[in-house]
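User: I'm writing a short report section on ligand binding and want a predicted complex to refer to. Could you take this sequence and pyridoxal-5'-phosphate and write out the structure as tokens? A short remark afterwards would be nice.
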Amino acid sequence: MKYDRSWTEIDLSNFEFNLNSLKKYFYPQADFMQIVKADAYGHGAYQIARKAIECGAISLGVANVQEGILLRYQGINVPIVILSPSMENEIDLIKQNDIIPSVSTLEFAKKLNEKGNFKIHINVDTGMGRSGFSYENALKNIQKINKLKNIEIEGIFSHFSSAEDNQEYTKLQSDRFEKLLDKIAIHPKFIHISNSSGVITFHNKYANLVRLGLLTFGVYSNKALKSKIEIKPVMTFKSHISQIKKAKQGYPIGYNRTFISPKAIKYAILPIGYADGYDFLLSNNGKVKIRDRICDIIGKISMDLTAIDVTDNPELEIGDEVVLLGDDDDIISVENLTSLYHGLSYEMLAQIGRRAKRYYKENNKIIDSSPILRRDFMPKDFSDSKLGNIIETAIEQRLQSKEIANLVHKDILKRLFVEKDRDIHYRRNFKHSIKFEDSDEFPDYFLTTTNLSFSKKLQNDFFKVVCAKSEADLEKYFLRNDVEYRWLLDNSIDLKEMYFSVTSVMIDNTELYNEMKIANGCIEIKCYHSSLKNLVGKEVDFSISTKTYYPKNSKQLSIYIIDMTKGVNITFESKLKDVEAIPIFSGKNKFPKITNKNNIISISTDKDEWVMPTSGVVFTY
Ligand SMILES: *Cc1c(COP(=O)(O)O)cnc(C)c1O
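Assistant: Sure. The structure tokens for the complex follow:
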């Protein structure tokens, strides 16, 4: 963050808090669908979906098939409903990715029916005046659709136009919906009409599912709701002061000289503008917060820069963190900022942070981040063959011959991936298992046993296992190739043998000797055996087991992969409830398989899949 021009912080604990507040308003048996359209209103569809599912969401709502496909590709398995009408040419993708379309016309239902079996949700327009069958002629259409052999009507839904501010109209819509449902002979599994505001303001007697959007992100759709429900903002948008300047009286600031300094002023430049999603209409109008002081935006917001008046805050410095939005402060809340220009909260959320990295927080700890590039690439976009073509074309242009280029290209690939494979130091069959058990001796700690095994070419007749208390100390061992195992001991624990030891270390079937040394903030354990001499240069099986302690209140455990690795399996065993694994994998496949069975969470890739250094998993509990 220190080095980001701007970033957003997404507080998943607040998101959970908001869901819990909303749940109090569910009818006795209503389930909820989390709306994650538009990248979950700018919060990140994948992470919001995961958290919502953890908190009980039974399905997800998206705007189009592509949003659904991305979630599928990221490993989300729950039902996904496309809320808007789909296009005919999207039907194959809908089918392939097991996504549920909504249906607003008979023609579309027939098209689906021709293409195979589909579950659908029927959209009824009860007064929103947008998509859906008009409530007046929905009945006959639903009857017709019900006769289509390949179509299963899983849901019927409608959408409120004014749930946040017009009870009367909302009731009219709800009544129209109820009347229609009274007449329908079929009983679809799901009946739904309420958005998040509707959940607070209105109950429909048939509905058994609600669709939650805005309020889950901690933004009120109407001030009046504040007395009914407490929610907390999930997104904070931040930047830094990049320059501090002075202007004499009468000097203009920004495009078209809309601000002329009324007196000598001091002002700061922020490296964000409307291209970052900071609305242009906040020009000469918006506010930001720095060191708990509120400062005014002056002049027009540019595409990439914004000026703020800091005359009254002489202590502010270049590099100071600037809160542009969120942060529990009413003045810079989404609601207040949008009211300054009669804008829409939904729009502001959806556009904020277009060029910002997102950091995900839970219990005030950063647990995940997603990169600046908003569009997540599909593997298909970047498959080896595509990259291969680019490389081949480049070689071809250089050599001016297609034939030779082809040969050279193949030769490079062969050397890189076939012949030389074994000369690059990499690990195969990487298995790391970690187990937490209660400890009688140290009740505040988990007795932690680990085993690491992999195959690798032996470099020397010994190697080391190291353990340190600080990341800086441990980092010194990262680039050394005589170290095969590194463990970061929690700060609360002393560097002593009783708190970290190797219980067994084997190469192939030989148990090695080990010798411990404590120095320079590290435990170094040298593992050796005379027979290793004969194995140097050969691929051998390593197996390293350790015993240590891990503080219960840490709430997270990180496992890193710092070598090139082919085929990874990391398991975490404990009696803890609610353990979550957050893999941060670099390599072709960013989404390893996660299973959770018998208290063991397992993260794995295919045997032949490469995982690049700087990958890892964070277990939170
Ligand atoms: C966006 C959307 C919602 C969520 O509405 P909020 O007001 O954000 O809670 C619900 N249903 C449909 C059909 C939507 O398009």
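A remark for your report: The pocket of pyridoxal-5'-phosphate is lined by residues 35, 37, 83, 159, 195-197, 211-214 (CB under 6 Å). The first helix runs from residue 12 to 23.
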